[in-house]
Amino acid sequence: MYRLISKHGRARRGEFKTVHGTIQTPVFMNVGTAAAIKGALDTFDLKDIGCQVELSNTYHLHLRPGDEVIRDMGGLHKFMNWDRPILTDSGGFQVFSLAKLRNIKEEGVYFSSHIDGHKIFMGPEESMRIQSNLASTIAMAFDECVENPCERQYAQDSADMTVRWLKRCKDELARLNSLDNTINKNQMLFGINQGSTYRDIRIEHMKQIVDLDLNGYAIGGLAVGESTEDMYNIIEAVEPYMPEDKPRYLMGVGTPINIIEAVYRGVDFFDCVMPSRNARHGTIFTSEGILNIRNAKYERDDRPVDPNCGCHTCRNFSRAYFRHLFKANEMLAMRLAVIHNLYFYNNLMAEIRSALDNGKFSEYRQSKLGVLDRHI
Fold it and tell me: Do 208 and 314 belong to one domain?
């Protein structure tokens, strides 16, 4: 259940109660695709860096170790030893990203494994069954994510099919939650808004999925090729049609400034591989901007990566040592970098929530524009 605590313009401060704990929003979900954060962080590290929600991938876990294996091990929470909320995405985005290997039909999608090429079928019912086996807190509906730009008729047809698939997801998850042997009988379902960059298709699609009275609503199909301005325009278009008493999730977004700007436009939930992926290549987010730790100018720099950061990396190691680890291809470099970037993102959300609590979000937003996205 979502409780709206306060509003500041469109920006929302709330909390979302789940069977695995209460989520303070706005929130960034830390992406652990295969039930693990890339960069060698375990679930104890996640707690240390302030992670509220972990996100795992239905498609990847279905392939290995197999969702039935995870079910037999007691579900994803027990499997990875994490007692806070988990959101699983539906596999729809993987279908999108595997475009050369897929065949989309009304019943679902036929595609080939990226691992060994074996044939896979996934439709709404299959996605729900896999996510039920995983026993995540929140299951995402199976949808079709289209590329941007996209022909208008294709965007319309895809949005229409996504609604039909969503109805099947809702029915199947209700059935699964009623079974005696289901691990998480309180699994929630979020629907996903699609429609490419066509405002009228997006709005009508949002109205249709809101009518199904789900636990939450996501805006999907953005950050896949369109401009930042288009992304913000779509959020502004659909936000008035999203229920105030349900959480709002912008999928796969994004940079720190993207997140602040989306909170400003009424979004509650975020996820993105960017902080961990960039970290593994030496790109570090800081309170002063974006830093490339491989740069030669840090060879004798005894300062922490971010003097204003309280993470394990910044409390204990210098830029010089950090740079050395990357230049020497030491595994520790990736671990320390991912710890910092994910701490930075989780702390960013804590700062946003504090600014909302204190009625200072407008000032906070202005103080970050032009700072967090500049390259040092």
Answer: no
